[in-house]
Specification:
Shape: elongated
Number of strands: 0
Largest sheet: none
Number of helices: 26
Order of helices and strands: HHHHHHHHHHHHHHHHHHHHHHHHHH
Helix content: over 70%
Length: 479
């Protein structure tokens, strides 16, 4: 791969205007990289160094570093000389900002190129299209009704391929171009190409400086590669201009990385970084409460791992205070249950259900508490609601077993009670209490003494670990 020619270097430098030498070098290399010019290993190394010095939030520049300081990988080899010629022509169109022609040619040659090459080329053309829209002036001409309806329908149905096709027809319109970039990102993320989505979200962020887009970009990078996310977080931590919302989300991903770290000393170091990031950034009132709460939960869990129980409870309380929703109540409730504060935990679980809880956790503990107090109807109803949350087989077996016990004490039909016990056994054949309780019920119905039910309270630690291990994007607390 050849270095940039002197002519290209001079042209790029002249167009950038009178800036410092280091910044000119940075912008020259960045412009060349974005324009698709081949960069030598030396130029890529220089780009990485200048990026580190500037601390700019530019994913495409960071990509050079994320690839191990190697040139951007070429697309998979095409199947025929004609396909190679098509790719060369597409590159030529993109280099001269003829995005429409590149897109048209790409669709004509779709079958010739084959899926892997087509997908990579389609991503490059879509990125070029979004960049073009970001620099184009919006128009007052309304979007055609059929296209507007298609965009709404495809986005609501998560029909990502049709959504991309509709977006490519859009062109300059009253719809703000950063919104279009976001919709492109949503579609590519839905197709599993989080690396492409991250670049699109970054383009939206650069055009608006709205932290929401930077948060989405970090989420997309982490979905593609947690190591790449950690590299970006390292740069964010050292940047005085990094938005608080992004730093708080970075804390969530660092906590997630710490849970996967095998080295105890490195894991504790990551937990400490989480707490420091949250303490540094959570006072910004402009950040969405859900993002602050997610970071507070990450800090709370990190403090627990570091043995700082009082600080952990403070962060749980902060999360509940700023975002009183089901996950924050459940998280604090499980910790209270582990620490022996049963009344406080049950109170949190009741409040979580009052918020319309989508998690099974509070239904399990409250159903068991109802069994303890022989509130059979309440136990049956809570267990039934817990089953609607699609729990794991083990938890499903517990809830079915408790429904059977409650139904038995409400003089339910014998066959119905036995069916519930049998469903519980089928869900978890190795749970010893289910068979014992079933046998006790059969003996009871054969005119023996009333049974003493064996229904032990579940271990809150397992539920807490599962909730802590959920990725930031899967815990509701996504922006």
């Amino acid at each position: 791969m050849q270095p940039l020619s002197a002519a290209i270097r001079q042209d790029l430098a002249l167009r950038l205007g009178p800036e410092t030498e280091a910044l000119r070098d940075y912008e020259r290399l960045r412009s060349a990289y974005l324009a698709g010019f081949p960069l030598s290993a030396r130029d890529l190394d220089r780009l990485r160094e200048l990026y580190d010095q500037s601390g700019r939030l530019d994913y495409l520049a960071a990509l050079a570093d994320a690839r191990g300081r190697q040139p951007r990988p070429a697309p998979p080899p095409a199947a025929s000389p004609r396909a190679q010629a098509v790719l060369s022509q597409i590159d030529a169109y993109l280099a001269t900002n003829q995005v429409d022609r590149a897109s048209h040619l790409l669709e004509l040659a779709r079958n010739e190129l084959g899926p892997p090459v087509y997908d990579e080329s389609r991503a490059r053309v879509d990125l070029a299209l979004v960049k073009e829209l970001l620099h184009a002036e919006t128009t007052d001409e309304p979007v055609a009704a059929d296209l507007r309806d298609a965009l709404r329908r495809d986005l609501s149905r998560e029909a990502y391929e049709p959504l991309l096709a509709s977006l490519r027809r859009l062109g300059p319109s009253p719809i703000p171009s950063p919104t279009v970039a976001y919709m492109f990102g949503r579609a590519w993320a839905g197709l599993g190409r989080h690396d492409v989505a991250a670049q699109l979200y970054d383009l939206a962020y650069q055009a608006t400086e709205k932290p929401h887009f930077a948060v989405l970009a970090l989420d997309a990078i982490a979905a593609a590669s947690l190591q790449d996310a950690r590299r970006r977080i390292d740069r964010l931590e050292g940047s005085p201009d990094a938005p608080s919302a992004v730093l708080l989300r970075a804390a969530c991903w660092l906590h997630h990385a710490a849970l996967q770290e095998a080295d105890p000393s490195e894991r504790d170091h990551l937990f400490a970084r989480v707490v420091a990031l949250v303490e540094r950034s959570r006072t910004d009132d402009s950040v969405l409460p859900s993002i602050v709460a997610a970071a507070d939960l990450a800090a709370a869990y990190s403090c627990e791992h570091l043995g700082k129980d009082a600080a952990a409870l403070d962060h749980f309380n902060r999360a509940v205070q700023i975002y009183p929703h089901d996950v924050t109540f459940v998280a604090r409730g499980l910790t209270r249950m582990q620490r022996g504060d049963r009344p406080g935990a049950l109170g949190d679980f009741r409040r979580a259900i009052g918020e319309g809880c989508s998690l099974v956790h509070p239904f399990v503990f409250l159903a068991h508490d109802a069994l303890d107090h022989q509130s059979w109807r309440r136990a049956r109803e809570l267990a039934k609601q817990g089953l609607w949350r699609e729990p794991s087989p083990t938890v499903r077996a517990q809830l079915l077993e408790w429904m059977a016990i409650a139904e038995a004490n409400l003089d339910g039909d014998v066959d119905d009670v036995l069916a519930l016990f049998d469903r519980a056994i089928a869900s978890d054949p190795f749970a010893p209490t289910i068979s014992r309780n079933r046998d006790a019920f059969v003996a009871w119905k054969n005119d023996r003494a009333s049974p003493t039910w064996d229904a032990k309270e579940p271990d809150p630690a397992a539920f807490r670990e599962a909730l802590e291990a959920a990725t930031p994007r899967n815990v509701l607390l996504a922006a």
